[in-house]
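Weekly sync, protein design subgroup
Attendees: M.S., D.O., the rotation student, P.L. (late)

Item 1: inverse folding check
M.S. brought a backbone from last month's batch and wanted to see whether the design step gives back something sensible before we order anything. D.O. pointed out we never logged the input encoding, so this time it goes straight into the notes. Structure tokens as presented (400 positions):
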């Protein structure tokens, strides 16, 4: 069960040719269907998921320990794994250590920025640095200068945050950058009432009120920055290295785009991966050895090399990093920025007691209250703390 676009028919045919006796049946990835299959005890043999967020599945005992396979494989080797794969690890109580329950196929440091230099030139705004991060406060100020409105309509958004995709990861990053923690030690409770958390939450409220970018109250129809950015109606978008893969064939735009480091809120520079899509084998898979054969092929074989060369994300294996594209000027610039950014990669905490979807829903509800002045930022953060901790308590009871 994977995205159909990620496993074309030609790739299936190639794998089956190289592995006689193994046949692939492709199911379009669907979270609802996957949960139903897992609950019925008849899951797919392989599924796709984010490394960050896998703690919930691992805590419920739904995934296969892949460590024995990694230790024996001559193709997909444990020593070749980049640290991003640690988010797929689980030691029985928390992620980041212990056995491996998945392997990342590609990833990015998702808080980095892509921007259109032509829109910067038009607004007479200096370009962002290739090496030094912009503060979140300065980023918002720049976004205000880049935003173009006319007759009540926004012609150009100054900044996109991919609001619909993830709220908990960037807010957690902002708190970490201030040298604080959002969770308690055992990841059973959070506190949004600390000064660091209120600052992060308040920045999102200020961003929304400024009207410089899409939010859930002013969403993009396709819930993605890409088409708006490509139409030259968004000056900056907060997206990972993978975003550059959109512009290889876009001759009208590729000469005007650049990548910049992740912004910072505080003194600690951290540039994490928000997800890190990868493959895992359900514990009740009936064909685990065959599934591993496919993982070796897909994650360390020709498909992995092809993905690396395409620029659609960073590879998760050390030997594939040199394969990243540097043919076009923007690819060279993005490669240099990405290589420097790797020095500041850091893992986000991943509680097994709450899902990403639940997090995004509860945070967005609280943000909307504050944006519409139904609550102060302090009151919204207090309410968010209560509601999130209720969900975490329920999640812990279900896992236990």
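Designed sequence read out in the meeting:
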């Amino acid at each position: 069960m994977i995205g159909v676009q990620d496993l074309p028919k030609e790739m299936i045919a190639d794998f089956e040719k190289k592995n006689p006796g193994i046949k692939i049946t492709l199911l379009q990835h669907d979270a609802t269907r996957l949960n139903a299959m897992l609950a019925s005890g008849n899951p797919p043999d392989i599924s796709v998921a984010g490394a960050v967020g896998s703690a919930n599945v691992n805590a419920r005992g739904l995934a296969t320990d892949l460590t024995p396979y990694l230790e024996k494989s001559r193709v997909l080797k444990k020593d070749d794994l980049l640290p991003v794969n640690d988010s797929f690890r689980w030691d029985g109580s928390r992620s980041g250590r212990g056995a491996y329950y998945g392997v990342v196929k590609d990833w990015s440091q998702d808080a980095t920025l892509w921007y259109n230099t032509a829109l910067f030139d038009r607004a007479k705004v200096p370009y962002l640095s290739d090496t030094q991060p912009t503060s979140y406060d300065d980023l918002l100020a720049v976004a205000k200068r880049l935003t173009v409105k006319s007759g009540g309509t926004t012609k150009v958004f100054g900044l996109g945050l991919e609001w619909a995709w993830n709220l908990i990861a960037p807010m957690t990053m902002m708190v970490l950058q201030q040298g604080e923690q959002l969770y308690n030690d055992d990841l059973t409770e959070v506190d949004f009432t600390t000064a660091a958390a209120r600052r992060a939450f308040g920045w999102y409220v200020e961003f929304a009120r400024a009207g410089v970018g899409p939010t859930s109250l002013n969403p993009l129809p396709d819930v993605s920055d890409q088409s708006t950015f490509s139409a030259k109606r968004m000056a900056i978008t907060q997206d990972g290295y993978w975003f550059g893969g959109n512009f290889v064939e876009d001759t009208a735009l590729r000469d005007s785009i650049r990548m910049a480091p992740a912004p910072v809120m505080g003194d600690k520079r951290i540039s994490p991966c928000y997800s890190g899509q990868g493959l895992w084998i359900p514990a009740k898979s009936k064909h685990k050895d065959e599934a591993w054969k496919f993982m070796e092929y897909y994650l360390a074989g020709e498909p992995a090399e092809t993905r690396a060369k395409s620029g659609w994300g960073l590879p998760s294996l050390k030997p594939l990093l040199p394969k990243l594209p540097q043919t076009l000027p923007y690819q060279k610039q993005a490669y240099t920025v990405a290589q420097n950014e790797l020095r500041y990669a850091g893992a986000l905490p991943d509680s097994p007691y709450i899902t990403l979807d639940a997090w995004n829903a509860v945070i967005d509800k609280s943000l909307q209250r504050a944006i519409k002045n139904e609550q102060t930022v302090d009151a919204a953060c207090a309410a968010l703390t209560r509601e999130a901790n209720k969900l975490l308590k329920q999640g812990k009871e279900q896992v236990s």
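Discussion: The chain has two domains: 4-108+274-344, 113-260. The first strand starts at residue 47 and ends at 50.
Action: P.L. to compare against the previous round before Friday.
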